[in-house]
Amino acid sequence: MKTIKLLSVIGTLASLAMIAGAQTTPKPAETDTRPATKPAPSVWLASDLIGMKVVTPQSEKIGKIEDVVVHPGGEVAYAVLSFGGVMGLGDKLFAMPWTVLRAVEPDTAKKDSERSLVLPLDKERMKAAPGFDKANWPVMANADWSKDIDAYYADARRPDSKKPVEAAARTSVITWKCSDLKGVDVKMPTGESLGDIKEVAVDTSGRVSYVVLSVGGFLGIGDRLVAVPWDALKFSLAGDKGDKKLITLATTKQQLEQAPQFKPGKDKLPEMTDPKWISSVYQHYSCTPYWL
User: Fold this and answer.
1) Residue 2 maps to a domain
2) pTM above 0.70, yes or no
3) Number of structural domains, the chain?
4) For a Cys-Cys bond, which of 15, 58, 97, 244 suits 239, CB 3.0-4.6 Å?
């Protein structure tokens, strides 16, 4: 009988030891399913892009950027090029999807190297390309016009670029030339003026990143240049005929006072194109970075 009781006690202790061991055994590490943090893309300022030279894959200059056309959703729709008579193209302008061009950063090993855009299309292809007169720009928000342009360059897009939104599926009836955005008044949703746009930053993959806004005025915070994410802006049409473009920003005096800013009088500071600094701009306005 004593033997049976002793065996029972030993069995109970063994069971308790197994349970304790199971409880203290570390669980396998769970897989982190959160998306990896990505740095903000490289950006170029519109003031640098307009006038920037366009070259062949062999680095031969063939033209320049006259303007960049964007949609309110942030898509860089078209780069407008001039060729100055090169390749027999005359004085016409040519709008082509941004994704046709290849952005090239300067080679630090070469003294005369500079930023440029490569156009990988041959002379015959460009001779047949649809163009327009400098004094008669097309309505680039028009689905019929953009459909033909997109179709002509469809097979020339960069392999890493996303498929563009079909012209007929675009809901926006607004486009902006970057040159026209400068000086545009940005208002509060209630109608008060915040200030005007001084600069537009475009990332090299074809997305508007942010604008530089000159604020102060009625806010009483003193003149300052602040960065505002493109996605924080709202675009609409106003006026009696519904043809007046309106840009608004829902913000507060405190938010603008604490916003990432540039010192007045200084232009193109290093942080304006720094990915970490651009990330801080989106964080300040609680905007989800579009590049994640």
Assistant:
1) no
2) yes
3) 1
4) 244
